[in-house]
Design goal:
The chain has helices at 3-11, 26-37, 43-48, 54-61, 76-83, 87-101, 104-115, 143-148, 178-191, 205-215, 235-249, 267-279, 293-302, 321-329, 349-358, 362-372, 384-391, 400-407; strands at 158-161, 164-167, 171-172, 195-197, 223-228, 255-258, 285-289, 307-313, 334-337, 376-377. It has 18 helices and 10 strands. Bound molecules: NADP nicotinamide-adenine-dinucleotide phosphate.
Length: 430
């Protein structure tokens, strides 16, 4: 498509306006279109043009400053990406998105205007085509789903637990100083991550909230997790921190976890308080972190709501087979923290060999291995290039043999252990 065709198409949606008059309500619609569109455009072109100054582009597509203007006529990245798009796909995709984000009155007016026109001869010919993620796609929606499912996470692979859809790839923020947390969360969301992980104890919830707002990605379009620190496990303290986390983030999290299991106060009290936090609307769902199988079962037995994940250390050097089985038995999921073994996988000869064969990096192969196992992975980075690299894992697939070779690297190596001595980790294979 030429630039002028794309421009005409965008401007055909009410609420998207041309010009540079920042501050009008309409630019929100335009900005959110683009923020949503970016990760869906052809990845090969992104890679090819990556060393151009993409930061400038990102700033311009931020809804806080974006208006559809002729700046884009001169911008090679946007133009190259748009040129590669199938026009029918783009029109159908934009239409669907526009219906979700445009003010009701605009949608109604457009429908009224459209129904006054004679019917189109062959509406079935405008069919969105699957885009970008080809063979690597893990949750290919059926045609029925494609119609009914909101596209909150687009084409990203997700896992659905107790009717909650969680993107399998997230972005972690442990040890990110506030400035880095703000910058990297905004960057991650702009790259296309739709799942952010933080915790009260990381002392960066406010910065994460700022990064979210900087990104311009709409709140309903990504999944957000935070955690209750162990000093706040009594009933009142838990509810107080849950409220504080909401205030820090400037948003209600999708998921609130108990950070580490603790013998006192009792599980009854803490699980009761966690459920109360959900009932009071301080989180949408609840879950656990670092709970061994025995404590996971006890906690679920005491919890009214489903505990939708147990976030634990898991990477090629630390298997969690028993916990995975427990999660499956309880209708829950496993989230892997330190999925890259804090960078150690970069030097692994087996992973390097597999990575070379796929033309990918060790980090990408490791994250792909996790999501092919249907484990949620939340890698962290302080670098935009690394965050981008770690997101680029949806266009290839590991063979059964690759997966088994990585499974076999398990050596029971634990990098972080703050388990209350009253409890014991599950035995691993190693
Ligand atoms: N629930 C819990 O108790 C718990 C505990 C620990 C972590 N977590 C969560 O899990 C997230 C991830 O764990 P993590 O931060 O410990 O470790 P990680 O994601 O396994 O590793 C992060 C480290 O690896 C480097 N790295 C990033 N991408 C890479 C790549 N493609 N190749 C090589 N090295 C790479 C990063 O360095 P650069 O910054 O230089 O890129 C950083 O030093 C945390 O941020 C946090 O959200 C939860």
């Amino acid at each position: 498509m030429t630039h002028d065709e794309v421009r005409a198409l965008l401007l055909s949606f009410p609420g998207v306006e041309d010009g540079v008059s920042y501050g009008e309500p309409s630019f929100k619609v335009a900005g959110r279109f683009f923020t949503w569109l970016r990760p869906r455009l052809d990845d090969s072109i992104v890679v090819h043009l990556d060393n151009l100054d993409e930061r400038e582009l990102l700033i311009e597509t931020d809804p806080a400053t974006f208006h559809f203007t002729d700046h884009y006529r001169d911008h090679p990245i946007v133009l190259a990406r748009i040129a590669s798009v199938d026009p029918a796909w783009l029109r159908a995709a934009l239409e669907k998105r526009w219906r979700r984000i445009a003010p009701r009155r605009l949608v109604k007016a457009a429908d009224a205007a459209r129904s006054a026109l004679p019917p189109r001869r062959n509406p079935a010919s405008v069919r969105p085509r699957p885009f970008g993620y080809g063979a690597g796609r893990l949750t290919e929606p059926s045609p029925k789903d494609a119609k009914e499912r909101p596209m909150a996470y687009g084409d990203q692979p997700t896992i659905t637990v107790d009717d909650v859809e969680i993107p399998l790839l997230g972005f972690g923020t442990w040890q990110l100083e506030p400035n880095d947390a703000r910058r990297m969360v905004a960057e991650a969301l702009r790259i296309g991550y739709r799942h952010i992980d933080t915790a009260w104890i990381y002392k960066n919830e406010q910065a994460v909230g700022d990064g979210i707002r900087d990104s311009g990605v709409a709140r309903e379009d990504f999944f957000l997790t935070t955690k209750i620190w162990v000093d706040h496990f009594s009933h009142d303290a838990l509810l107080k921190q849950a409220q504080e986390s909401v205030d820090n983030l400037g948003a209600t999290p999708d998921l609130l976890l108990l950070h580490w299991p603790k013998a006192t106060p009792s599980f009854e009290e803490t699980l009761g308080a966690l459920n109360a936090a959900k009932e009071e609307g301080l989180t949408r769902s609840i879950g656990l972190s670092n709970f061994p199988s025995k404590e996971f079962r006890r906690a679920q037995a005491l919890s009214k709501a489903r505990l939708i994940t147990d976030q634990v250390e898991h990477h090629p050097y630390l298997g969690v087979d028993q916990l995975v089985a427990t999660a499956a038995e309880l209708g829950s999921s496993i989230t892997a923290w330190s999925p890259l073994a804090q960078g150690k996988i970069a030097d692994d000869p087996t992973i390097s060999e597999i990575a070379r064969a796929h033309g990918k990096t060790n980090g990408q192969v490791t994250l792909r291995w996790l999501i092919q196992h249907r484990i949620i992975a939340i890698p962290r980075s302080t670098k935009e290039s690394r965050a981008r690299e770690n997101f680029d894992i949806f266009d290839f697939e590991l063979s059964g043999e690759d997966v088994q070779r990585i499974d076999a690297l398990d050596r029971g190596e634990r990098l972080g252990d703050w388990l209350d001595p009253t409890f014991e980790w599950d035995k691993t294979e190693a």
